[in-house]
Amino acid sequence: MALPAFAQFDMRMDGNLGPRWRKWLDRFERLTTAMAVSEPTRMRALLLHYAGHEVDELFDTLIVSDVTDDVNAYQTAANALTDYFTPKTNTAFEIYSFRQATQGETETIDNYATRLRKLAKSCDFANVDREIANQIIFACQSKPLRRRALRDDLSLDKLIAAARALELSEQQANAVEGGTKADRPINATTSVIRQGTVHIQKSQFWRQRCALQLDQSPRCYNQTPTR
After folding, report:
1. What are the φ and ψ backbone dihedral angles of 66, each rounded to 5 degrees?
2. For the segment 114-134, what is each residue's pLDDT rounded down to a tens digit?
3. In angstroms, rounded to a whole number, what is the distance separating the alpha carbons of residues 103 and 80?
4. Which of these, 132, 110, 102, lies nearest to 120 by C-alpha position?
5. How far apart are CA 88 and CA 122, in angstroms?
6. Is the pTM of this model over 0.85?
C-alpha cells in the first residue's frame, strides 16, 4: 500500500534541533493516528522511514537498550532520538526569540498569546503564564492595555479578557464613526447654500447703495460683487 506523503526531519536546518524534533514527532504521531497504525513495531519502522535517511543512519549509531517485547519498540526508538536531539536546545536563544516577539499590527490578542505560548515551550520558564503576561505588557500594540496592566497588575487571564474588551470596543467605535461619512454630502450642501445666501445679501447691499446715490442706471443694478 502506498504511504501518504510526509515531510522528513531536516537535521541541517538552522535553529534548535530539540524543539523542531519534538514538533516533528508530534506531527508524526498524529499521522499514525490518522492512518490507524498502533502496532509498535510498525510505528517504529514508519518513524525511521519518515524521519529520513540521515535520522535513520543516526539511529544506527545510538546506544539503544534492547527491546525484549514489541510493546516498547516504538517508544524506545522515539525516546532515544529525543534524548539525542534535546541537549541541542539552546535555552538562551529560545528566551531571546521569545523576548523579540512583538504583537503584529493586525494580530489579535488571542493569536499573539498563542504564539507566545508556543515560543515559551522551549524557554524552561518557571512561571509560563507570568512570562507571557509580561511580554504582552511590554510588546502589545495597545497603550491603554499596557497602562491598565501596569496599574492593576493583571493575571494573564484577566489581561487577555481586558484586551478582548478593548479590541471589541475599538471595532464598535470604528463602525459607529465610519457611519458619519454619510453626513458629509449634507454638510457640503449646507455650505453651498450658505455661500449663495451671502452672495444674495451682497447683491442687495449694492442695489440699496446705488438707490441712495440716485444712480438708476442698469449698470448699477446689474453690478455683482465678486464672491
Report:
1. -65, 135
2. 999 999 988 989 999 999 999
3. 37
4. 132
5. 11
6. no
